[in-house]
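subagent[fold] <- orchestrator: predict structure for attached chain, return tokens only, no commentary.
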Amino acid sequence: MKISPYLVALFLAITVISCKENSTKKTEKSAPSSNAALAHLQALDDSCSKAWELMISSDDQKIKDIERLLQEISYIPGHNEQELKRLSDLVKELPTKRYTTETMTSPAIDAYDQATDELLREIFELKRSTKGVENYTLTVVLETSIREADGMVVNYRVLYDRWVHKYNESLDKIQTTTEVSDEDRQGLKKKLTFEI
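subagent[fold] -> orchestrator:
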């Protein structure tokens, strides 16, 4: 049975991030309370960043596969050149519509998801309607990879939310304790979540 590389990446991410947090907890046992709290928060922040990077990396690879699929279609004699150009332009614009950790409001997330879903629907339709595409087997491999990556989006978001919730809970404790100085608390703020 073929194991999805995206599932492998997600499993490794969970393992590495969890090990990192456990390692930090062991170190904190001998540290002063204020330093321990801040060190734990930093470890959670690092875990959030790693989960985010993995998610964006997966999305970037999906976009590269989409571009490669369109390129492959361009090799097929008689393809719809106008539609291919239109979709290629939309693919180039897609990353500019993507949210960040600071802008990931529900409307921003929904807008990006809708733009991605609509684009994939149109690209797969172009592939399906292009005569002779069955002779270009790489298009099948690319479509499978794209669909697989798109299906993993929720998993990456759940992983990110898991660490953000831990981070925000830890931050709440720091904001109410007297063991951490006001100076150390300055600039700390809660992170947004996907709430999946």
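orchestrator: received. Logging for downstream: Residues 9 and 178 are 40 Å apart (CA to CA). The mean pLDDT is 86.
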